[in-house]
Every structure is written in structure tokens, then in C-alpha cells.
Amino acid sequence: MFENLTNKFEEVFSSLKKAPSLDEKQVDEGLRGIRQALLEADVTLEVAKQFVENVKPKALGTEIVRSTSPGQMVVKVVYDELVKLLGEKNEEINLNAVPPVPMMLVGLQGSGKTTTTAKLAKFLENNKKKKIMMVSLDIYRPAAQEQLKSLGEKNNILTLPIIEGQLPADICRRAISAANLNGADIILFDTAGRTQIDLQMMSEIKQIESIIKPTETFLVADSLTGQVAAEVAKEFKNTVNLTGIILTRADGDARGGAAVSMKYVSNVPIKFLGVGEKTENFEVFHPDRIANRILGMGDVVSLVEKATQDLSEENIKKTEENLKKGSFSMNDYLTQLRQMKKMGGIEGIMSLMPGVSKVKKQMDQSGIDETIISQNEAIILSMTKKERENPKIIDGSRRKRIANGSGTDVATINKLLKQFKMMSDMMKKMSKGNLKGMTDKGIPPELFNQLK
Length: 452
What we know:
The chain has about 450 residues and is of the alpha/beta class. The protein has helices spanning about 5-20, 25-40, 45-60, 70-85, 115-130, 145-155, 170-180, 200-210, 225-240, 255-265, 285-295, 300-310, 315-325, 330-340, 345-350, 355-365, 370-380, 385-390, 395-405, 410-430, 445-450; strands spanning about 100-105, 130-135, 160, 185-190, 215-220, 245-250, 270-275, 280-285.
């Protein structure tokens, strides 16, 4: 996400950072580049114009802090304005009501409401420890109710049973009674969408709102639609008490215009991002972290959160103990590979690292293929228990056997063993507090050479 915008911003900042001092002409030139970058990212003209107007007086009037360049101070001003534009802080989900707390998801057809309902339910179960009931009010789209039921069964989430021919208002009343009987803490209402906003759709949503009185009404918007998504948010805000936005397909949006525009245009906070097809591909929206990503500064906090969210306390403790001992086995490496897959593969991790464009360039130049993770996993699984614990015993005949078992060749086994050796050495350095070479300029080139 934001790849195009990040690249453009980094181009602008690289020239500003080189200048020993900045005059109004240079600032104007830089801001022209920023405005163009925003417009190319499908940010609305109104937002791009206002953003540049806000940045200019601060960029020219900022006192230069000792040990920083004028260019760096401009980056700081742009960062602060981006955070302000995106919403300043993460807005917590409102659970302040007597259970079962009702919440409603609205949006156009095809925006991903039903899948997002299941993602939000799973998030609330895992992070807020709440029992959720999902309810489909979409009686128009063929198999819409069955889709939510299927998602509920697949993810072990309580879903209101379907009664054919029942109208949305009646389904709402039945859902509230059923949620009380089942001890649900929260009810998520998945409303019907249309291909475009119409009076009938808005009238139905207003009726549902008056019956269930939701604490949260989320607009589910497709980030790939850019400025259209921002206008849709404005329309819904004029009709219902919209409290939050959930942007879907954020992982496929290289421009990021919708995220940058929506808070400003609708005055409604973005609360979550859908970043993939799986139920767990769902993130809390943090304006400061997103601003860091846009400016190519990385998002190390999110990276750490992703790395630990699927690990048990016992596994974390074991990893810490191994690091202290300087011990690192093939089993540890296998755990890391599987964790990388859950985090979106090599590219998913690198997108959160500082200097993302440099890292991306390194990946492209090195010809790294995402399938390398699955291939390495297959190789390790073809090893015996002793070989995983002590890879030094893997001689020529063992390499041939492992290659046959994993469907690879000896050269690929040699490459993995080199990668493991490098990773093991890095872990030993980390255990001693020596992080030399791990800088914001990207990943050590020798590691990329081994991954090729």
C-alpha cells in the first residue's frame, strides 16, 4: 500500500535533504512535487490543495533544530500534517453500551461488507475477548445470507439462523432476542448494498438504524476506488450517523488516495484496514504509523505486533532463551519462515521496514521469489530431527536425500544451508547486542545475495 506515493515523496525529499539551506523557491518546488504526488495517488484536488497550503507556512517558518538539515525539518512538517490529515490518533471502537452491543456495516455492493463482517468479528473475539453474533440483512443479493453463514461456520463465529422471506426490520428484532438468549456481547449487522447509492437503500438503512440504535456504524469502502470512496463516505455521512470507516483491499492499493482523502472529506475516522483475503488480514488504522509508511520511514511497531500476534508466550520465551544462548536451530528457522508467510511473505515484511523503496529495489535487483519461503519450508521438513537440531552433520549423501525428499536439487540445499549459517550468525550477534549492519538503509546486501 502507498508504494507509488512513497516513491514520489522520497524523490521530492531526496533533493530537499541535499540542500544546505532552503529558500521559498526551493520549498515551492518541493511542495509542487508533493501536490503532484498526492494527485497522482488519486487524492482529491481539495485535499491536495489544502495539504500544501497547510505545509508551506510551517516549512518556511520552522526554526532549524541543531544537528538537523532544513530538508529534514520539512520532512517533519509534512509528517505532522499527514498525521493530522489521516486523523491524528487511532479511534477506539465504541463498546460503551449494555450488551449485546449493536454495530452496523454499510456500503456499496462489492465493497467487501460480508467478508469484513467476519474479519471484524474475529478481531473483536481475539482482541477484545467478546462473544459475537453475525447477522445478515442482505435479502436481495443471491446467497448473501448463506455466505455469512458459511464464514461463521468456517471461523467458529455465532451467526443468526436464516429464515427465508423475512424482511430486514424483522431480522433485526429477532437477532436482538437471539443474541440475549445466546449470551452474545456484540451483534454485527451486515446490511445490503447496491451498485450505487439510491433512496431505497438509504431509507432501509435509516429504518435499521432506528431499530437497532448502533454504537458504531462502519462504512466499508473499497480503497481501490480512490476518490469515489471519499464521495461515497460523504453521502453516507449525510444519511446515517457514520462513526467509522473500514478500508478494504488496502494491500492492493499502491496509490493510497482513498486513505489520505477520506478522513478530511467525510470527517469520519478510518478505524480499520482490510489487507488480504484471509479473516486474520485485518489491521487497526494508526494515522502516525501510516504517515511513517507513506514517507518511507517504515512501520516497525506494526512489524513487531505482526511478528508476535500468532506466537504463544511459551514460544516467545523459548526464542528469547535461545537468543541469549546464541543458539539457533533449523526448527527455529522453520518457525521464522512460517511466521513470515503469516505476515505476508518477504514483500509484506519489507513493506514495513525503513527505507522501503531501497529495500524493494534490492529485492528486484536480487530477483527474490516469494516461493522461496515455501521451498525452504519443504527442505527443512525433509530433514531428520537430528539434522534440524544440528545442520553441521548434513554431508553430501544427506543433501542428496533431502533434495529428493523436497523435490529440489543439491545446489538449492547448499543455498539454504548458507542462508541458515548467515541467519544463525546474525542471531548470535543480536544475542550479544551487536546490531552492526542492520540500518535504515535497507537489509545487508550479503543476505540478499544468499536469498537469490
